[in-house]
Design goal:
262 residues; alpha/beta; Rossmann fold; seven-stranded parallel sheet; 15% strand
Length: 262
C-alpha cells in the first residue's frame, strides 16, 4: 500500500527561496511531498536552487519578482499558479536588514525596510489567500525574526518592520481562523545566512574585530552560544505546514536558543 506524504499534492511558494532559510524551507516542505515554487529577483540563483532541489528529489520551479512591488507579486503568483496549480502554502521569507544608527536612518532606508520586510508579506498574503480560501485549506507562514519580538540597537527600521509582521500575523490569523487557513510567524535569532554574514562584516568594519570575534559577538545573544542553522528554522516552518498543526494559529514561534525567553 502506498503511503502518501503529509503534503502530497500541496503547492508551496517560498519567497527569497534561492538560498539560506528560504532554500532550506523549500527542501523541508518538498521532503513532505509539497510541490515547490521559489520566488526571488534573480533567475540565475533561482535556477541553481531548483537544480539543487531536483537532485534531492524535490519537484520545484521558480518565478521572478520583487515582493516589495505589488504588480510583480501578482504576475509572479499568476505564473506559479498556471505552472503548478493553486497555492496552498505560502512561506514569506524574503527580507532585508540594514544596520544604521537611528539619527542617521534616512526616510529612504526606513521605507525600504518597511516595503521589503512588511509590505512584501502583505502583498504576497493577499495574492495567495484566494486560492486557500477557495480550497478551505491553507498555510501562511511568515519568517519574521526575534527583532519582531525584541528590540535591537542600530536596526530600528528593521525591528519596526518585523514587529509589524508579527502584528499582521496575529490579526490575519483571527480573520481566517474559521476558513481552514492558519497564519503563523517563525522568529529566528541570528541565523547562519547572508544577513548574518553582512552583520559580521559590519561589525568588523566598525570595531576592527576579526571575523571569529565578530561572529562570537552575535552568537553570544543566543543562550546556547551559537548561531541558529537554516535547517532548524525550516523544520519549524515545515511543521507548521503539516495537517497535524491545524490548531496552531496566530503564533510567533521563536527559534533562538532561548533568547526571547530571557
Amino acid at each position: 500500500m502506498t503511503v502518501l506524504s503529509p503534503l502530497q499534492g500541496r503547492h508551496a511558494l517560498v519567497t527569497g527561496g534561492a538560498r539560506g532559510i528560504g532554500l532550506a524551507c523549500a527542501q523541508a516542505l518538498g521532503a513532505q511531498g509539497a510541490v515547490i515554487t521559489l520566488m526571488g529577483r534573480q533567475a540565475a540563483g533561482l535556477q541553481a536552487a531548483c537544480e539543487q532541489l531536483a537532485a534531492a528529489g524535490v519537484t520545484a520551479g521558480y518565478v521572478c519578482g520583487d515582493v516589495a512591488r505589488q504588480g510583480e507579486v501578482e504576475q509572479a503568483f499568476a505564473a506559479a499558479r498556471a505552472a503548478r496549480g493553486p497555492l496552498h502554502i505560502l512561506v514569506n521569507n524574503a527580507g532585508q536588514a540594514i544596520s544604521e544608527r537611528f539619527d542617521r536612518t534616512s526616510a529612504e532606508l526606513w521605507q525600504q525596510m518597511l516595503q521589503v520586510n512588511l509590505s512584501g508579506v502583505f502583498h504576497c498574503a493577499q495574492a495567495a489567500l484566494p486560492d486557500m480560501l477557495q480550497a478551505g485549506w491553507g498555510r501562511v507562514i511568515n519568517v519574521a525574526s526575534t527583532a519582531g519580538l525584541l528590540g535591537y540597537a542600530y536596526v530600528s527600521a528593521y525591528c519596526a518592520a518585523k514587529h509589524g509582521v508579527v502584528g499582521l500575523t496575529r490579526a490575519l490569523a483571527q480573520e481566517v481562523a474559521r476558513k481552514g487557513v492558519t497564519v503563523n510567524a517563525v522568529c529566528p535569532g541570528y541565523t547562519e545566512t547572508d544577513i548574518v554574514r553582512d552583520a559580521v562584516a559590519n561589525i568588523i568594519r566598525k570595531t576592527g574585530l576579526d571575523e571569529a570575534a565578530a561572529r562570537a559577538r552575535l552568537a553570544q545573544r543566543n543562550p546556547q552560544g551559537r548561531l541558529v542553522q537554516p535547517q532548524e528554522v525550516a523544520d519549524t516552518v515545515a511543521w507548521l505546514a503539516l495537517p497535524a498543526s491545524a490548531s496552531v494559529n496566530g503564533q510567533a514561534i521563536a527559534v533562538d536558543g532561548g533568547e526571547a525567553a530571557a
